[in-house]
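lol forgot to send this yesterday, sorry. struct tokens for the thing we talked abt
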């Protein structure tokens, strides 16, 4: 429709690339605020503007910095079902900048914002069947009540995620080697949520997941 790569969510186009511009669906209520930012222009189709869409020119792109490290120890590399220890760490630094005049137009928000995310996780797989894991996450950023949709304007959050996964099949010696089934239970525990430790545990959750794949 737009002559370029696009992505869908629930059957509706949410973003894409048209020419050298990034096309973003922001919704009619946020379109005016988005157009107040530098390097943003209306999205047009067949010479007519599309409600709820904007285009961001290359000058409005930002580059985030990230570091990622992975370690894995396999007790017997010759066996698919060997026990294995895995560790993973990620650091992401994001920066959003706007011209001062544009920031003031957008309800007085600060012109510069940063967001830092750190994650560490460790898992141990027993015979490629049962895998417990634990993860620590920590997010900090610039406090601005006009930018973040949090009660105190802070995006800061941290906590732990504990998960146990069970994969009964999909291995050479299993009764169904061509069927992969993964069952998991996950508990998310917040020490701090949206800049506050008070009531952070009210956001704790337990998740159950089921994933399957069949090889023909």
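and heres what i got for the seq, position by position
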């Amino acid at each position: 429709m737009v002559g370029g790569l696009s992505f869908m969510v629930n059957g509706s186009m949410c973003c894409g690339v048209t020419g050298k511009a990034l096309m973003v669906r922001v919704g009619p209520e946020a379109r005016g605020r988005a157009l107040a930012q530098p390097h943003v222009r209306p999205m047009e189709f067949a010479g007519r503007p599309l409600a709820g869409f904007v285009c961001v020119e290359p000058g409005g792109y930002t580059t985030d910095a990230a570091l990622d490290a992975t370690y894995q120890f396999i007790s017997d590399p010759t066996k698919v079902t060997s026990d294995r220890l895995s560790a993973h760490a990620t650091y992401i630094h994001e920066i959003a900048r706007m011209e001062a005049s544009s920031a003031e137009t957008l309800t007085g928000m600060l012109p510069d914002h940063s967001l830092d995310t750190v994650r560490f996780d460790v898992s141990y797989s027993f015979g490629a069947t049962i895998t417990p894991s634990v993860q620590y996450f920590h997010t900090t950023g610039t406090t601005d009540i006009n930018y973040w949709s949090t009660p105190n304007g802070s995006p800061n959050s941290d906590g732990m995620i504990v998960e146990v996964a069970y994969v009964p099949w999909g291995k050479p010696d299993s009764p169904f080697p061509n069927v992969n089934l993964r069952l998991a239970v996950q508990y998310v525990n917040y020490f701090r949520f949206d800049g506050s430790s008070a009531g952070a545990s009210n956001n704790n959750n337990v998740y159950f997941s089921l994933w399957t794949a069949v090889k023909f």
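The longest helix spans residues 28-35. anyway ping me if u want another try
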